[in-house]
Write a structure and sequence with these properties.
heterotrimer, A alpha/beta (269), B alpha/beta (247), C mainly alpha (232), A: 269 residues, alpha/beta, D-Maltodextrin-Binding Protein, domain 2, 10-stranded mixed beta sheet, two-stranded antiparallel ribbon, 11 helices, C: 232 residues, mainly alpha, MetI-like fold, 78% helix
Chain lengths: 269, 247, 232
C-alpha cells in the first residue's frame, strides 16, 4: 500500500517536471498543410530558420480547411497554405491582415499508362479533364477539402464540368492513400508533384499531363490579425514571415531536393 | 469482558413484537424475545424457519419492519457503539485477500486500535485459537475449518460482549467442528454471551444452556436446555426433536 | 520516417534512432500519465457508485458504460474546442502540447476504469457486505478495503484502459497536432507514414507499438501472478 502511494507520487512529480521542461525556447505555431509537411520541406528549412533566429517552429499539418479553422480560432501564430482565394477571403473576413507569395509547386495529372481518355494529347488541363469526363473513366478525387482538392474542383469548374457519377470517386483521404487507391483502380488522379516523386506504389500509373500554368500551386504566408487575436506571438511570426521571403529563406526553399529533384520554386516579390 | 469506555453490559437484549417483511412477504411474525446476560443460547428450527433472519436482526445487519429491539434498556440508537461490542461468525467465513494475521489486524484497525498494539493483540488471538503457526499464510489458502477458526480468532480479538454464530459448522468435517465448538466454549468461559443457530440436534445438545425454537417465522418457545430435549413445550419442537421433518 | 522497406522500422530500433526513441518515450509518457490519473480518479468513483444508492444511479451507470465506447476522434474534437484559444479554457495555452494529449486520453480512459471498477467492486461488495457490516465497517471505510482486495481484477481494468489509450490516434491527432518532435506519438507517426504512402514502414512501426504494449502487459501479468501465488 505504501509502495503504491510512493510510486504514484513519483509519477505525478515526474509528469509535472517533464511537462515544464519542454517549453523553454521561443517558438511559434505554424498552421500548414499535410502535403507540405509530407514533402519533407519543413525538415529541411526549419533548422536553418532556427539557426538564423533561435526561434523553434512547430508545424501543425492538417488539411487546408482545418488550417483555416485553426487560424480563425487563434490557435496558430501564422498560416502557410496554398489556396490564394481562401487566403484572401480569410483576410477579407478580418482574421488575417496581409499575405505574401512565398513559393509554388505544381500539380500533375496522373493516369494509367494505357491512357484510355487520351489525356496525353490534351492541350490544356481543361481539355484533359473534358476528355476524362467524356470517356467516363475512373477518376480518384481527394474529396477532403484540402488545397489539392480545392484546386481539383477549380480545374473542373474551369473546364465547365460538374464532376459526378460512378466514374468520379471521392475518397476523403490524404494524397498518399488517394494515390494508392488510384493505382489499385487504374484511375486518373490530380496530385502534387512532391507527393508523386516520393510515391513508391506506382503500379501502372505515370504522369500524363503537366505544365499548364493553371496547375501551379501558389503558396502564401498569411499574417494573423493582432486585433482579432492579441495573445499570439505576432512579432516572432513576423520574423518567420520575413525570413521566408528574404533571400536566405528563398534560397533554403530552392535548395530542398527530393530524389534529386527540386520541388518548390520560390517566387516572393 | 470488553475494553470499550462504558462498563455497563449490552445485555439483556429485548425484542418486542419484532416483524420482518421483504417484498410484501412477512418472514418473521411478531417475535418477543429476551436474552439475559449469561449463557449459550441455541436457536433451532427447520430450514427456512427464520433463524438467520433473527440473528441478523439482533446483530443490526437488518432493520425490523415493525417492533423494537432494545439493548440494556436503550433502543438501538448508536448503531456503531453497539456494533463494536458484538461480533458475528457466518456459515461461510469471509476473509480478505491478505495474510491470516492481517485479517485480524484489519478488524482491530476498524475498531480503532492503534497500529502499535494491533500486531500483539492479533497474535494473541491467533495463539488462543491455535493458529499462530499460520500467521503469515494467505488467509484464503486455509482449509474451511481453519478459516472458521480464524473468524473466531478475529472475533476473539475484539472482545465482544455477545457473539452471534450462524450455523458455523454446517460446512465442516467433525474434527473441525470439534475445534470450533471448543473455541465457542472459550468465549463462554471468558464471559461472552453466545447466540448460535444450528439444525444439528447433537450439537445443540452438546452446547446449549437454553434453546430458542423457531418455525415458520414464529418463535415457538424459549426453554432451558435440559427441559427442551426431554419435554419441549410446542408440538413442532417435539416433532423436530424426534427427528421428523416439519415446516 | 525515412526508408520504406519492411525492415526499415526494425533498423531504426537496432541503431536506437533518436527520433524513434523520442516518439516511443512520448507515447508512453502520454498514455501512462493519462491512465494513472484516470485510475486515481476512476477507481474511487467506480467504488462509490457501486456502494451507494442515490437517485439517478441507474442512469449514471448506463452513461459510464456507454462512454467506454466514446469515439476517440469525437473526444479529440471536444477537447480541442475546449482548449482552443477561442474556447473556454483557451487562456491556458494547452493546445498542441503533450498536456492536451494527456487530457484527451484521460477523458477516453476514465469511463472505462470507472465502469469496469464499478462492476468489480459491486460483485465483491455483495460477497463482503455482511461480514464488513458485522465488523462495523462503514461504506466509506469499505472503499479502500474493497479496492485493495480486488486488486488483481482491477489491474486488468487498468490494463484495459492502457490498451485503449496507447491504441488510439483520433484524439491525440487533433489536440496534439502531430508536431514533429513535440507531439508526435507512435499512433500518429503510423498515421502519417500511411498517409505518405510508406506502408511498409508504417506497418513496421505498428509491430513495434504492439510489441511494446505486449511487453507491458506481460510485465503486469508476471507481477500479479507472483503476487497472487504468494497471497492466494
Amino acid at each position: 500500500m505504501r509502495f503504491l502511494r510512493r510510486a504514484l507520487g513519483g509519477l505525478i512529480l515526474s509528469l509535472g517536471l517533464a511537462t515544464t521542461a519542454w517549453a523553454q525556447a521561443p517558438f511559434i505555431t505554424v498552421a500548414s498543410t499535410t502535403s507540405t509537411e509530407q514533402s519533407g520541406l519543413f525538415a529541411h528549412i526549419l533548422p536553418k530558420f532556427k539557426e538564423a533566429t533561435g526561434i523553434e517552429v512547430r508545424v501543425v499539418a492538417v488539411g487546408t480547411g482545418q488550417a483555416f479553422a485553426i487560424a480563425r480560432r487563434g490557435d496558430a501564430d501564422i498560416l502557410l497554405v496554398h489556396d490564394t482565394a481562401g487566403e484572401e477571403k480569410f483576410i477579407a473576413e478580418g482574421y488575417g491582415i496581409a499575405r505574401t507569395d512565398v513559393m509554388y509547386n505544381d500539380f500533375v495529372l496522373i493516369g494509367p499508362k494505357s491512357d484510355p481518355a487520351k489525356v496525353a494529347e490534351a492541350e490544356s488541363i481543361t481539355d484533359a479533364l473534358q476528355r476524362i469526363a467524356k470517356a467516363q473513366v475512373p477518376f480518384a478525387s481527394r474529396g477532403d477539402d484540402s488545397g489539392t482538392h480545392r484546386t481539383e474542383l477549380r480545374m473542373w469548374e474551369l473546364a465547365g464540368i460538374k464532376p459526378g457519377g460512378s466514374w468520379y470517386r471521392e475518397l476523403g483521404s490524404g494524397m498518399g492513400p488517394t494515390l494508392n487507391t488510384a493505382a489499385a483502380m487504374d484511375a486518373y488522379v490530380l496530385a502534387d508533384r512532391a507527393t508523386w516523386i516520393a510515391f513508391d506504389n506506382r503500379q501502372n500509373l505515370e504522369i500524363l499531363f503537366e505544365g499548364d500554368k493553371a496547375l501551379f500551386n501558389q503558396y502564401g504566408s498569411v499574417l494573423i490579425n493582432p486585433e482579432r487575436h492579441p495573445h499570439l506571438k505576432h512579432d516572432l511570426a513576423k520574423k518567420w514571415h520575413d525570413w521566408l521571403i528574404s533571400s536566405n529563406g528563398q534560397e533554403a526553399i530552392a535548395s530542398y531536393k527530393l530524389r534529386g529533384q527540386q520541388l518548390f520554386f520560390p517566387n516572393a516579390e | 469482558m470488553n475494553q470499550s469506555l462504558s462498563l455497563s453490559s449490552l445485555l439483556p437484549l429485548e425484542l418486542e413484537q419484532v416483524s420482518f417483511s421483504h417484498r410484501g412477504q412477512t418472514l418473521l411474525h411478531a417475535i418477543d424475545l429476551r436474552l439475559g446476560p449469561r449463557g449459550k443460547t441455541i436457536v433451532m428450527g427447520p430450514n427456512g424457519a427464520g433463524k438467520s433472519l433473527l440473528m441478523r436482526l439482533c446483530h443490526g445487519l437488518l432493520q425490523p419492519t415493525s417492533g423494537t429491539i432494545r439493548w440494556a434498556g436503550k433502543p438501538q440508537a448508536s448503531r456503531q457503539e453497539i456494533r463494536r461490542r458484538q461480533a458475528m461468525v457466518f456459515q461461510r467465513p469471509i476473509m480478505l485477500r491478505r495474510s491470516v494475521l492481517a485479517n485480524v489486524c484489519y478488524a482491530l484497525a476498524v475498531h480503532g486500535v492503534s497500529w502499535r498494539q494491533r500486531n500483539a493483540l492479533a497474535m494473541q488471538a491467533l495463539e488462543h485459537m491455535g493458529l499462530a503457526a499460520l500467521a503469515q499464510r494467505p488467509a484464503r489458502v486455509l482449509s474451511g475449518g481453519e478459516q472458521q477458526r480464524l473468524a473466531l480468532a478475529r472475533a476473539w480479538a475484539l472482545r465482544p460482549d455477545i457473539l452471534f454464530l450462524d450455523e458455523p459448522t454446517s460446512a465442516l468435517d467433525p474434527a473441525a467442528t470439534k475445534a470450533v465448538e471448543d473455541a465457542i466454549e472459550e468465549f463462554h468461559r471468558a464471559g461472552t454471551r453466545i447466540v448460535m443457530s444450528t439444525h444439528d440436534l447433537g450439537q445443540a445438545r452438546r452446547l446449549a444452556d437454553e434453546v430458542v425454537f423457531m418455525c415458520g417465522g414464529r418463535l415457538l418457545e424459549q426453554t432451558p436446555a435440559e427441559r427442551f430435549f426431554e419435554a419441549p413445550a410446542s408440538l413442532e419442537a417435539a416433532a423436530f426433536v424426534r427427528g421428523e421433518l416439519i415446516w | 520516417m525515412y526508408d520504406n522497406s519492411p525492415w526499415a522500422a526494425f533498423e531504426l530500433i537496432a541503431r536506437m534512432d533518436p527520433v524513434l526513441i523520442s516518439i516511443v518515450a512520448l507515447s508512453l509518457k502520454v498514455s501512462l500519465s493519462a491512465v494513472a490519473i484516470a485510475t486515481l480518479i476512476g477507481l474511487p468513483i467506480g467504488a462509490a457508485v457501486a456502494l451507494w444508492r442515490f437517485p439517478g444511479r441507474s442512469l449514471l451507470i448506463v452513461i459510464l458504460n456507454a462512454f467506454m465506447g466514446l469515439p476517440p476522434v469525437v473526444v479529440g474534437l471536444a477537447v480541442y474546442l475546449l482548449l482552443s484559444r477561442a474556447g473556454p479554457l483557451g487562456k491556458y495555452g494547452l493546445l498542441f502540447t503533450p498536456t492536451a494529449m494527456i487530457i484527451a486520453q484521460f477523458v477516453l480512459v476514465l469511463p472505462i476504469i470507472a465502469a469496469l471498477a464499478r462492476q468489480v467492486i459491486e460483485d465483491l461488495w455483495q460477497e463482503y457486505r455482511e461480514q464488513l457490516g458485522s465488523l462495523g465497517v462503514t461504506r466509506r471505510r469499505a472503499i479502500p478495503t474493497l479496492l485493495w482486495d480486488a486488486r488483481f481484477s482491477l489491474l486488468t481494468v487498468v490494463l484495459a484502459g492502457f490498451g485503449r489509450a496507447s491504441a488510439e490516434v483520433g484524439a491525440v491527432l487533433i489536440v496534439g497536432g502531430n508536431i514533429d518532435g513535440i507531439t508526435r506519438v507512435m499512433t500518429t507517426a503510423i498515421a502519417l507514414e500511411t498517409n505518405k504512402g510508406n506502408l511498409a514502414l508504417a506497418m513496421g512501426l505498428g509491430v513495434i507499438l504492439l510489441s511494446l504494449v505486449a511487453l507491458i502487459n506481460a510485465a503486469a501479468y508476471l507481477i500479479s501472478e507472483t503476487s497472487r501465488r504468494r497471497l492466494g
